[in-house]
UniProtKB/TrEMBL annotation:
Residues in Proline dehydrogenase domain copies: 49-297
Required co-factors: FAD
Cofactor: binding comment: Binds 1 FAD per subunit.
GO biological process, one term: L-proline catabolic process to L-glutamate
Organism: Saccharothrix tamanrassetensis
Pathway info: Amino-acid degradation; L-proline degradation into L-glutamate; L-glutamate from L-proline: step 1/2
GO terms, molecular function: nucleotide binding; proline dehydrogenase activity
Broad class of enzyme this protein falls into: oxidoreductase
UniProt name for this protein: proline dehydrogenase
Length: 306
């Protein structure tokens, strides 16, 4: 892993750094670039603006690795409130939610996570929208796909996420090509025994997986900011005779907004992944670790120059 990325990820786990960043007055500005505030109201404001600009949205209530039933319940309640308000504001047509099973109790008990995810799926259905289950590190993949299979019995539109860096993913794509699948490169530090570690291999696998998903009857969602992959997906979609509404691109809030606008103007469906909530720190650190330019932006802000 690149040393800067390791350093930032180490800082993410350091309490003193966390306190300093969280309380620095300029942090709020930096956070605002990648996170849609701490409350449901602020998330709805950002969603409204994006939808007005022709984008779709998936909302993520920040929080992961919950080992506390009370916290898991608070996360479920936040999703239920959010889904209610998406419905009431008419935004549910264009906005769905993304859920991390670890935030609703997966590490405590898979059954608890299934029950909690079912409550969120039921509320989403009632509100006129749907749910995508984020994918976390490889030790949770089997459990997450088992929960997904259960959810598919009642809510077949529930989306999965598959990570191109995992060696198993081509097979998972074949199994899920008839449903909604978000394909991403993968964001966790994984061992070579389970994951491709050469970025070029990851990209090649992304294209193989994209071909499988595009040849299926489901709805592929291509989550990447990578210009080469975006272009290859467009070419592969034409080759597979897919219309623009048969698949979508997804990008993170605050990352390549001009590319999001360009693809939308070209007639593509683009969905923005919008995180919100009080637990923004770990998410922000992962975004900074992904890209040196983001770190420069952050440091300039801390120095009061941006
Ligand atoms: C909508 C969405 C949902 C996701 N969900 C999950 C999930 O559930 N599980 C999971 O493990 N991971 C998830 N990820 C993260 C994903 O796995 C990658 O870690 C992340 O997207 C970075 O990979 P990339 O494909 O964008 O390409 P990278 O390899 O990070 O970047 C490739 C190229 O993209 C361009 N680029 C990237 N960032 C920028 C930028 N800020 N400005 C300008 N150009 C840029 C550059 O040209 C760069 O060389 C998700 C990502 C997105 C977009």
């Amino acid at each position: 892993m690149n040393p800067l990325r390791s350093l930032i990820l180490a800082a993410a786990g350091n309490d003193a750094v966390r306190r300093a960043v969280a309380t620095a007055p300029v942090s709020r500005e930096v956070v605002r670039r990648f996170v849609a505030g701490e409350t449901v109201a602020s998330a709805l404001d950002v969603t409204g603006d994006l939808v007005e600009n022709g984008l779709r949205v998936t909302l993520d209530y920040l929080g992961e690795d919950t080992t506390d039933r009370g916290l898991a319940e608070r996360t479920v309640q936040s999703y239920l409130t959010l889904l209610d308000q998406l419905h009431d504001t008419g935004l549910a047509v264009d906005a769905e939610v993304s859920v991390k099973l670890s935030a609703v109790g997966q590490s405590l008990d898979e059954r608890l996570a299934l029950d909690n995810a079912s409550r969120i799926c039921a509320a989403a259905e009632q509100g006129g929208t749907t749910v995508t289950l984020d994918m976390e590190d490889h030790t949770t993949t089997d459990s997450t796909l088992r929960v997904l299979a259960e959810l598919h019995r009642s809510w077949p539109s529930t989306g999965a996420v598959l990570q191109a860096y995992l060696r198993r993913t081509l097979d998972d794509c074949r199994a899920l090509a008839g449903s909604r699948v978000r394909l991403c490169k993968g964001a966790y530090a994984e061992p070579a025994s389970v994951a491709h570690t050469d970025p070029h291999e990851v990209d090649l696998n992304y294209v193989r997986c994209a071909n499988v998903l595009l040849s299926g009857s489901g709805y592929p969602m291509f989550a990447t900011h990578d210009p080469r992959l975006i272009e290859i997906v467009a070419e592969r979609a034409r080759w597979h005779d897919k219309a623009p509404e048969d698949f979508e691109y997804q990008m993170l809030y605050g990352v390549r907004p001009s590319e999001q606008a360009r693809l939308t103007a070209e007639g593509h469906v683009v969905r923005v992944y919008v995180p919100f909530g009080e637990q923004w720190y770990g998410y922000l650190m992962r975004r900074l670790a992904e890209r040196p330019a983001n770190v420069a932006f952050f440091l300039r802000s801390l120095a009061g120059r941006s």
